[in-house]
Design a protein that fits this description.
Mean pLDDT: 78
Largest sheet: none
Radius of gyration: 27 Å
Oligomer: single chain
Organism: Dyella japonica A8
Keywords: NAD, Oxidoreductase
Number of strands: 0
Strand content: under 5%
Protein name: Aldehyde dehydrogenase domain-containing protein
GO molecular function: aldehyde dehydrogenase (NAD+) activity
Order of helices and strands: HHH
Distance between the termini: 61 Å
InterPro entries: Ald_DH/histidinol_DH, Ald_DH_C, Ald_DH_N, Aldehyde_DH_NAD(P)
Low-confidence stretches: none
Length: 83
């Protein structure tokens, strides 16, 4: 029967206990709700991951941009020998 049930949460042999469990999502499916919104599941439901990359002030990325200096050419020659 559970395999054929459309629900966000189900309690077997009792009523409403899945709502009190913070580690289980709570909410409806379809027109009755917007999915699980309880505990960590709720945080994941209403969150949008936003990746942020911060380049360190001291980094070698500047060597890859023109105008190319002596350090760039030395590094390129070294990499070509190693590769």
């Amino acid at each position: 029967m559970l395999a054929r049930t459309r629900a966000c949460g189900v309690t077997v042999n009792d009523t409403l206990h899945h709502i009190a469990r913070l580690n289980l999502p709570f909410g409806g499916v379809g027109p009755s709700g917007i999915g699980g919104y309880h505990g960590e599941a709720g945080f994941q439901t209403f969150s949008h991951m936003k990746p942020v990359f911060r380049q360190a002030r001291l980094n070698g990325a500047g060597m890859l941009n023109p105008p190319y200096g002596k350090r760039f050419w030395k590094m390129l020659k070294l990499l070509m020998r190693l590769g």
